[in-house]
Amino acid sequence: MKKLQQDRRGNHRAQRVQLWAQKLRERVTRSTQAFFARREQRLAWWSRTFRVPQVGHRWLFSQANSLWAAFMSLLGLVSKGPENKFSRARSSSHSRGHRYGRTNAGRLIYESLESRQLLAGLPELIELAFESSSISQITPVGSEVYFVALAQDQGTELWKVDSGSSTGATLVNDINPGGGSSSPSSLTNVNGTLFFSANDGTNGYELWSSNGTLAGTNIVRDINPGSGNSIPSSLTNVNGTLFFRASDTTNGTELWSSNGTLAGTDIVRNIQSASGSSSPSSLTNVNGTLFFSATDGTNGDELWSSNGTLLGTNIVRNINPYSGNSYPGFLTNVNGTLFFSATNTTNGTELWSSNGTLAGTNIVRDINSGSASSSPSSLTNVNGKLFFSANDTTNGTELWSSNGTLLGTNIVRDINPSSGSSFPSSLTNVN
Q: 305: which of 58, 112, 286, 368 lies 20 to 30 Å off by Cα?
């Protein structure tokens, strides 16, 4: 009987232990899920706030970005420094550990979240460690991410990472061979082809394109022949056609377009005749029409538009007549309507809109009435509504919004009351 009672007590203790263990497992599971849910939310927040690009389920950032490194610990992620060059990958029966991709430039580090606790859909953070330099100009093209990095043996060149591969970063093309730098800039995706400006050491800074392969990375056209520079900039995709500004000794700095071929890369219009420069800027796609600011030498710096042809490239309106400049700026597409800031002697610098016609290009509201200026800036499209910063003198520089009408253009809130200014800036559309 005594032995039977002991057995029963032992069974009760075993059941209590099992029940306690089950509750503990459930508590650990809930805590783990909550931890990873919070970490995912933080990652998404930092990605939006600091413009860190996401490719697939990965975020791409540079080890040299000290701001990200500082927040890594808050996110529960470990930052591994370049301890030993080309370290071997660690392996374990219960964890993926760390994968290292070796390149001539240095070590590429993948910091994976723990396999044992990784939930479906959680991001994987990729840290790219290049010796003595951070990466820049990160540009997604399909499943690949292109960027510019300084490597010890190649100089500053074009690199890429495939989001579906764990092989690490690869050099696309050593455009300026050896230790020279081609210094790619203005990386722009046009229907799956990457366009950019680069210097191969022979032709100067010219327009290049790449499909991600060595053989498919080539100069498009030597616009300013020889070692001269055409310095392509303001690269803009308009329905599959690349528009940009470039210089040559014949035409000065003018508007060009390209379909990626030598024959299909040409000046659109020599807006300021001969070798004078119209200096097009603020290139903006509005539903297939290119809007930009340029000067033809007669009308000053005014608003222009182009459909890519000579006859279809014209001044939209001479907002500040005669030889004055309206200096169109902050060009922003809001549901097919162009909003921008412009100056004239009557209204000062105010908010304007355009549908591309003379009659359809008008001041939206004289926010700071008379010839004084409200100086609209940081124009931002938020789900079909324009938000911007402006100063009406009464409220100081505050947040405004507009639906494109006089009555629909108003201050959102006087954040710093009375004539004080809150100076809203870096306006960002979230969802």
A: 368
Q: Give 200's contacts (C-beta < 8 A, 6+ positions apart).
A: 175, 176, 182, 206, 219
Residue in the block written with tokens 């990873």: 36
Per-residue pLDDT of the chain (431 residues; tens, 9 = 90+): 555 555 666 666 667 767 766 766 677 666 666 665 665 565 555 555 544 555 544 555 444 444 444 444 444 444 444 333 333 333 333 333 333 333 343 333 334 333 334 444 445 555 555 554 568 899 999 989 999 998 877 889 999 998 776 667 889 999 999 778 999 999 999 999 999 999 999 999 999 999 999 999 999 999 999 888 999 999 999 999 999 999 999 999 999 999 999 999 999 999 998 879 999 999 999 999 999 999 999 999 999 999 999 999 999 999 999 768 999 999 999 999 999 999 999 999 999 999 999 999 999 999 999 999 999 999 999 999 999 999 999 999 999 999 999 999 999 999 998 778 999 999 999 87
Map residue 209 onto helix, strand or coil: strand
Tokens matching residue 342: 């412009």
> What is the length of the chain?
431
pTM: 0.72
| H or E element that contains 243 | strand 241-248
Rounded CA separation 171/154 (Å): 9
Strand ranges in 345-406 using DSSP code E only, listed in sequence order? 348-354, 361-365, 377-382, 385-391, 397-402
